[in-house]
Amino acid sequence: MARTHITTVINGDEVDFLTEDSTSLLHALRDEVGLTGAKEGCGTGDCGACSVLMDDRVTCSCLVFAPEADGATILTVEGLADSGELHPLQQCFLEGAALQCGICTPGFLIAAKALLEKNPDPTETEIRYALAGNLCRCTGYDKIVRAVQEAAIQMREQ
Amino acid sequence: MALTEENPGYKWVGTRPIRPDGLEKVTGKAQFGADLTLPGMLYGKIVRSPHAHARIVAIDTSAAESMPGVKAVITGNDFPDLAANGAHPSAIDISHNAIARDKVLYEGHVVAAVAAVTREQAAAAANAVEVTYEVLPHVLTVDDAMAENAPLLHEGMITKGVEPTPEQPSNVASRVAHERGDLEQGFGEADVVVEQEFTTKPVHQGYIEPHAAVADANSDGRANIWCSSQGHFQMRADTASVLGVSQGTLKVTAAEIGGGFGGKTVIYLEPIAVRLSQRAGRPVKLVMDRDEVFRATGPTSGTRMKIKMGVSNDGKLTAAEVWMAFEAGAYAGGPVGAAGMTVLAPYDIPHFLVEGYDVVCNKPRVAAYRAPGAPMAAFAVESVLDDLARAIDMDPIDLRLANAAVEGTQAAYGPKFPRIGFVETLEAIKEHPNYTAELGPNQGRGVAAGFWFNAGMSSSATVHVNENGTATVVTGSPDIGGSRQSMALMAAEELGIPYESIKPVVADTETVGFTDVTGGSRVTLATGAAVVDACRIVIDDLRARAAKTWDVEVDQVEWVDGQAQHVDGSQPPLSLNDLAAKSARTGGPISANASLNARGVGAAFSTQVCDVEVDPETGVTQVVRYLTAQDAGRAISPDYVEGQMQGGVVQGIGWGLNEEYVHDQNGNMENPSFLDYRMPVASDLPMIECCIIEVPNPAHPYGVRGVGEVGIVPPMAALGNAIKDATGVRMTDLPMSPIKVLEALNEQSD
To answer: Which residues in chain A have their CB less than 8 angstroms from residue B712's CB?
Structure first.
């Protein structure tokens, strides 16, 4: 069976892989590229656990066919830290206990990063709406929202 | 945070450091159930029943077997007949729930499974398995299932707990009852009696990570399993039973778990994955889709409940009569027993009768969900209490204070309470500014309380002192909400070394002693006690080694601040680091095990107040303010105690306002996705304010009670009481979704 050759930039590296046309970007990232940070919670774009930045847009990678990523620039949770130095969001999630089981955390970090790049000083309501596409069943969102607020402060001060 | 007793000078317990497993989880490195890939691994796919109730006439796997990439196809015939082997009925139920034999009992029931080289090949082969069904009439609710001449799920089901024993089978698996005093007298002493019927729908635990398992079977009969599980020893036992093999042939490793809330204490995929792997001779990965999670796992029971309670004008509860029927799903064993034990537990009521029925129906077998049974029961009773308080014009907290169980109260389910902190949670809410904050238009305030036993059960721990004076703490409790941090904090406190010097590890079934599931809010209590015990054995060993080094009696040596000290100060202290470095000369490696069955479980209480705003045009209820007070005993890790409190509340808000299983008339679930099964998202909610109460459990070395579950017990009634306060309408059917609230508002204005 012929597979399609895809060329992308993932987390700053040029990455190419072969894929079936019907394979989701999420499955390609996890199975072909070996990046399992993005999670499959639903496969229907409802939970946000598979969120990645695709050409700077928050994208449910389960809703994108892998061939659609040809030529795209993708950021996954594995690419958030810079040479081992945590992104302020990662640090604030740790310090603020903004995760329990951690399965939704990669998606929240990606969605929050996209928010803060567009809106460095969001209100609590803006944070809550920006993260409304990401489900968390453990935390009740309280500590997640607070961690994003804290990260926003730190990033503005940088 | 409220401290009812001062922290007695702990250095680590009660602090908020970064969790030991956090870094892996914010960088995407943590390995969850679906993240493992093995060389040569195949993908499995389950074939599930499309019918709620049907006889399996035939299964033809020949087409599937001949498809490209297919390496194994299995059916119920590939598993032993446990009934013929004289197994316990509960083991037979587990086996038949894992894979159906002659009948399917719910939509989503497993009938066959395939393994193939790719996901796509596995999915195609699963579609090609031909199952011939004879569709049978089904029952979906307790009302249908308890009706005369209802279709039977299990032809041999004779109701237990009824005298005389019924002669005819039914869908009622058992009756439970608790009673005290004289109901007639009790209601006679009441000035006001409120009687009300309540219904609730099945709701799912809703963990974001679907069930996942990888099995790698060897030709010698041994197999390795990696799975997302709240208890890998339980997975080993049940998987071995279903496969008909010795537990010793299976090694189970708990992956990082992406939420469970009770729903991952039972097997689904594990025995299927092992059998596929055995047939194929290669590792097999099985991962559920979300719709499989909804259709075939969890949920908790839908219920019907009738409550009658009496109160005197001065606020003393005189009598309570509770009737409850709980859906068990396809097999006996719903949580009605716990519901019956918890329903009146917070209160001292002289006369009561509680009876409950465990009823099977053609829905997925219910699984534990956070304080199983207690939340729906509390929804009913706490709603009635609210109406009683209104009827006698008494503050709802004062009514609860006037009847609250305290130390020495004979609990409605039997034992006398030791020291408990219910009153403290009530007082904390009453004194909080939220309780008297001004309400806006269309807003109302509701209060409710809840009780959960908490569990003890069996746990093991091993503590290794490393050569450099750090320590590894090994347990068998999958960490679902931060328990590794609690273990590390207690070990640091005991050993007197920094928290950062402790590495807590969750080990597989061959590396640590038997440990029961992560459930019942028991891990920090029971596994924590095992960690403390193991640390204390290590400390005794360290003292003995110091005594040997100094050539003194061991009673001359104390362990203080991470070092051995001579009682009269005549020797330079020996640190853990010093003793570890010289261990080879003082008896070899320093290590200790402790295993225990935890005693002295400490009950948990929670009181909550919420303010809602009900839109009279749409019926939408918005939570505008929420406060929860809960007795933790001792908050070892306050961050994650709050996390449990907040998470429980928000699950309760979802249960109260939106979540429900919707079935069509054929018994097919109509909303098996996160789009249509509507769990709360960030924009639905305010901050969830927490008040941790600490009334230490006298039976635990650090006073721990357990905090995981009780937080989900009060929210539905708190919301219903707030809606009543805002609108005057009493909601008695969960969820209190916009359409139902709107209907009730319209009825009220008609």
So the answer is: none
